[in-house]
Amino acid sequence: MKYLIHNKWRIPAVYLLLIFAGLQIAQAQQIRTIDGVVVDQATGEPLPGANIILQSDIFIGTTTDARGKFTIHVAKNQWQHDSLIISFLGYHDRTIAVKEADQSHQITLKPKAEQLGEAMVVARRIIAEEFTIKEMKQIDIYLNPIAKADPLLAVNAMPASTTTDESATISLRGSSPAETGIFFNGVPIYDAVRFSQLNGIGTFSIFNTAIVERMHVFPSNPPLEYGNTSSGLISIQSKSDLPKQNQHSISLSLANLGGQMVRKMGDKTGITVFANYQPSAALIGVNEQAFDNLKSFYAADAGIHAVHQINTKTRLKLFNYTNLEGYEYKFRHASFSGIFDQQKRRNFTIINLNQKLPAGEFNLNTGASFSHEKYDYGNTLVNMDKQDLYAGISYIHFFDKLSVKTGISNDSRLQKLDGSFPVFGYALGNDHPAIDYAEEKSIDVTEAFTYGKYEFNANWISGLGIRKNLPYTNQKNYWSGQWNVNYSFLKHHALNASVGRYHRYALPNAETEKVTFYRSDQISLDYSLETDIVELTAAAFVKNVKFDQTKEHVNGAELFTKLFLFRNRVTFQASYTLIDATRTTNGSTYSSPYDLEYFVRGSLKYQHHSNLDISLIMLYRQGQWYRPVIDRNYDAALDVYEPVYTSRDNMTHYPDYLKLDLSLSKLWPVSSRLNIIGFMNVSNLLDTENVRDLTYNHNYTDYTYDLFSRRTVYFGGIVNF
Fold first, then answer.
1. CA distance 76 to 78
2. Longest CA–CA separation in the chain, Å
3. Could you tell me which residues are beta bridge partners of residue 585?
4. Tens digit of pLDDT for each residue in 670-700?
5. Which residues does residue 499 pair with via DSSP β-bridges, in sequence order?
6. I need a surface site. Which of 180, 361, 573, 604 has the fewest CB within 10 A?
7. pTM of the shown model
8. In terms of C-beta density within 10 A (0-12 exposed, 13-18 middle, 19 or more buried), how is residue 399 classed?
9. Who's near 131: CB < 8 A, 6+ residues apart?
């Protein structure tokens, strides 16, 4: 592997860091440090993201971290007479003398009174949340430097993620992304990634973190209250509370112009509206070398999220999202070089109704998604239309120590495909033979489930569930089952054990050309330790998966540690993942694409007292398996060569993958309602040549590497008011 660091980048990067360091050192002269925590006056819960500014100079300030803690530096001549202004959405502002804040360390804020006299229906939580391997709140996504404020990229920062490309597609613990279930407000979302096939750009999900309340991740043994998922699940819940006040934001970056508005419409309704437009000219212009194969791209998306409190016990939520995107890049093959053009448009709507009952809760979740995709290159022209319809109802009943949830759902999917396709996979040129083709594939899965959870005591919780399909459309007749147990001990320690069998139907995708039925048997054991200064997790798991004529066996282990150092100003985290995965087809056993001896992640984040965050993020893993060409046959009729690949049991690895990213962000709290965030990201700081694929010459006697993204610079700002 080659590591190429250009001198033209090295000196400016070091110089920029020196400028930042010099400015901060200069500001730090003759100051007094004040540490504190901001909490809810009624509950004592910490308030992350609260603003603290100096009354005499609103440009001096900070915000609280995920634990409500803050550090602010005040000049010694201001300590005796100045004050701090503390503000947080939904709470009354408070002004406190600097001297008093220095002595008390804990600052309480009083919640603003609600307009409705009766208690409102609370946000619905999933019944299996105690068996969650990772729960993330909105602030956790924003504070994770690896996530880049994207929910699915936050999942890809976990040691359980074995995603081997630079996108928001999710592979969990050595399983194909086709087996990962992604649910938004209880509704399955298929194709949750924008620019899902874009060469050269890390992709993002379709989810706007601003409307996300929390996210639960089950890398193994997905809870059976969710259907049609076999190896891992991500459950995203949007905000359920009405906004306390109106908010607005405008974002401008190298490849994005966007805006967001949060409005409270009377006492019972709140809406969030957002829109973004992403042109390519500026990003490609600044990063010509990184995107030398990319001709252009565009994206435009808009969404609305509404919450309506019908009464104190009934809540209605609606989410609608529309996305348009397209790109053109230079496609190279032994038989063809030209432009690959992809266009896509999509719209989906999700409606949730929640009814709180005296001893339980009723939920109705519905969703409808429609999309059209077009691919055009060489002798290939593909038009694909997809339609996904979902409806599910459930009821959960709460006893003293027992909770039981039961429900039924229908997941209906339709995929129509038409166009022209190559007759021979090695002949892709415009003048090579193609065949017109049209097909329609559908899946209609109806399943019923029951899941019970019993709390033996404060330390022991166990869950048991079954799920059964109703095979009225010539489907396989199957039962899914699951058992979970969570044991907490010695105050900060916990064990989570799960075993189960799961099933999933998937439409044709990049891995298979037909509807695929997955059956997965899993055992997993997860350990966690969490204190104020350290988080430690370890896991071991086994999975046996069957699909088509293939059997897959996965063994794996994970280690993760996170340290909070120097009064939480420095956060260090590192993880190591080992996956031993094989596939057996027709008696032949070979390595799975996710068979990896080492997958290492690390990050180091420094939070300066002036709201400057600096992060370094590293990812190092074994190169993917591939089948080299060992011979070729000449096709005289087409004047092209047909490659002969090595057998699957003689595959080899691409060179190891190494990527180091640098991230800088700065918050300027102008007032209690106005703040500005600036950010810059340098992806692949070392300009490492990470291999994605091989491109052969016309007769397969030589090849060049197709690379993942080279060094890319991205910057912008957000104004919140």
1. 5
2. 90
3. 550, 588
4. 877 788 989 898 999 999 999 999 999 999 9
5. 483, 523
6. 604
7. 0.83
8. exposed
9. 218, 221, 223, 461, 463, 484, 486, 496, 498
